[in-house]
Design brief:
2 domains, extended, mainly alpha
């Protein structure tokens, strides 16, 4: 396998994406349980400290490309991709961050597969390839996590359901609780949460009359 640090930023994607379907449009990856963006950012910050000796500053190449790294490849456009690769060449001498960016895109490719068996094969292959000794520690850690959760990740292709909506509702409820410094009445807590979420169905709350 050719490491990304050899001067070819697309090496990882081409090496790992042999099963890529013919269509290139990728769906959103909100269902993915693995926070690959966090692994990418950890790698960026590590390389920043190793090469510059300090945290990111506005003139540093890796700090300037931090938002571009999190964007989907198809949303960058030609100008955005050229800018990103230029900043990586300037601030990523060993290609560690470039490797993690390509690994992130390879993980996103998982959701272009509609066949659960093919998705499981994809996760197994990707997880094994990411643990190559030539890759940065963040990539190897991501590979181990993919292998550990491979069945749960591939299960999405059967149900097409994630816990994203549940997590979103839970976040709204916690924000209401923090703003009110807690509630002593569950009834009031429930009403405030419904109002905060927007447009509650009052027909389901027979004992409550909105003013």
């Amino acid at each position: 396998m050719t490491p990304a640090g050899t001067g070819n930023p697309g090496a990882v994607t081409r090496a790992l994406c042999d099963l890529r379907p013919s269509h290139s449009r990728r769906p959103p990856t909100c269902a993915l349980a693995i926070d690959y963006k966090r692994s990418l950012d950890e790698c960026r910050r590590r390389v920043q400290n190793e090469t510059m000796g300090h945290r990111g500053r506005k003139e540093d190449p890796l700090y300037r490309c931090r938002r571009l790294l999190t964007k989907a490849e198809e949303r960058l456009g030609e100008a955005g991709k050229e800018k990103l690769l230029g900043l990586l060449r300037a601030g990523d001498p060993r290609g560690d961050v470039a490797t993690m960016w390509e690994a992130k895109e390879a993980v996103r490719e998982l959701y272009t597969h509609g066949d659960p068996a093919l998705a499981l094969e994809w996760v197994e292959q990707l997880g094994a390839d990411l643990q190559d000794a030539d890759y940065p520690s963040e990539a190897r850690s991501l590979g181990r996590t993919l292998i550990r959760w491979k069945h749960q990740i591939a299960a999405w292709h059967k149900a097409q359901v994630s816990n994203g909506p549940t997590e979103a509702v839970n976040n709204l409820i916690k924000r209401v609780k923090r703003a009110a410094f807690g509630f002593t009445s569950f009834r009031n807590y429930r009403i405030r949460s419904l109002l905060y979420a927007g447009k509650p169905n009052w027909n389901l709350l027979a004992k409550i009359t909105p003013r």
